[in-house]
Amino acid sequence: MATQTAKTDRVVSLDDDDLETVVEDSSVALVEFYTEWCGTCKRMKPVLEALAEDTDATVLTIDIESNLETAIEFGAQSTPTFVLFVDGQPVKQLRGGQNEQALRDLIAQYHD
Questions:
Q1: Exposed (0-12), middle (13-18) or buried (19+): which is 46, by Cβ within 10 Å?
Q2: Are 2 and 19 in contact (CB under 8 A)?
Q3: Which one of 22, 68, 84, 103 has the fewest CB atoms closer than 10 angstroms to its CB?
Q4: How far apart are the first and last CA of the chain?
Q5: For 69, left (φ over 0), alpha (ψ -120 to 50), or beta?
Q6: What is the sign of the dihedral through the CA atoms of 59, 12, 73 and 20?
């Protein structure tokens, strides 16, 4: 498995092959599709780290330039694009920068 742990223990960077497995193993997973050069994506990093630290959701990132097939599959045409998965299925997509509270509310809406 090519999963790499980012600078924090909780936000996990994935490759095409890993996404389905990790999402299916999580009751609620928030995936950010990003690019390295995206300024908004860089600004979202501390928000994602905070969510990973104190919510029960699995927080994941996937670089769309390295994983184009997966990005296309989930409609990530711009960065950042957030896809919320519940029980392995995508249930909500948000495009562009989001504030922390909006993402917390989204996770809480679908978390048991």
A1: exposed
A2: no
A3: 68
A4: 29
A5: alpha
A6: negative
- Contacts of residue 89, defined as CB under 8 A and 6 or more positions apart, other chains included, come to none
DSSP 3: -
Cis-peptide, bond into residue 90, ω within 30° of zero = no
Locate tokens 């999963």: which residue? Answer: 3
Question: What mean pLDDT do residues 10-31 have?
Answer: 87
Q: Please state the domain extents for the chain.
A: 4-110
pTM greater than 0.85 = yes
Q: Hey, which CATH number is domain 4-110, 3.40.30.10, 2.60.120.260, 3.40.50.2300, 3.40.718.10?
A: 3.40.30.10
Between CA 65 and CA 6 the distance in angstroms is: 17
Q: Are 55 and 106 in contact (CB under 8 A)?
A: no
Tens of pLDDT, residue by residue over 62-76, are: 999 999 999 999 999
